[in-house]
Amino acid sequence: MEILDVLAGTAKTGRLGAVFCGADWNDVTAALGEPWDIATMIRRTQWPRLFAYGDLELSVCGCRKVSLICVQTWRDVVELPPSIVGGTGTFPAGLKHEDVVSALNRAGCSWEPCPALTFGDQCSLVAIPSGATFAFEILEGEGPVLNVMGLPGDGHDCSTVGQDH
Q1: Is there a domain that residue 158 lies in?
Q2: What single DSSP character describes residue 119?
Q3: Based on the number of CB atoms within 10 Å of its own CB, is 60 exposed (0-12), middle (13-18) or buried (19 or more)?
Q4: Within a domain: residue 164?
Q5: Number of structural domains in the chain
Q6: Between the CA atoms of 71, 73, 74 and 75, what dihedral angle is there, to the nearest 10 degrees?
Q7: Which domain holds residue 27?
Q8: For the whole model, what pTM was predicted?
Q9: What is the pLDDT of residues 104-136, one digit of tens each?
Q10: Is position 47 within any domain?
Q11: Is the residue at 86 inside a domain?
Q12: Shortest CA distance to 112 belongs to which of 122, 123, 120, 121?
């Protein structure tokens, strides 16, 4: 599978295999295994946490639900869990705006510019079905190149925030 197909499919469905906003962390780890990296997001508490499977980053709330999803694409290569994308899970980066738009159109995923995230050397678009945002860095002489694709949180207000679990 090509990285553009992975991102367009995720933008259309709001899912990357077992990963989606609101997914139970136990279901995610059952499908993907243990994360490759972990960080706490608030100093004195264990939760929420940021888990990474290569360039797939997941914010997980105190109630153990996935609350935000990002795919970092600004590195030299993009690494995603092979169990959900197939092959080696390693893809070339440097995705151009026109290629992302073409992939979204091929997938039947409607989109529109995202003025709220367009400023300075950045332009953005949002996929209508899932609310996924694509943020591009505008490189001089090269045009916009994708830095990150993110799925918005589900808006849940967890009562466990700030508690040590």
Answers
A1: no
A2: B
A3: buried
A4: no
A5: 1
A6: 100
A7: 3-151
A8: 0.88
A9: 999 999 999 998 888 889 999 999 999 999 999
A10: yes
A11: yes
A12: 123
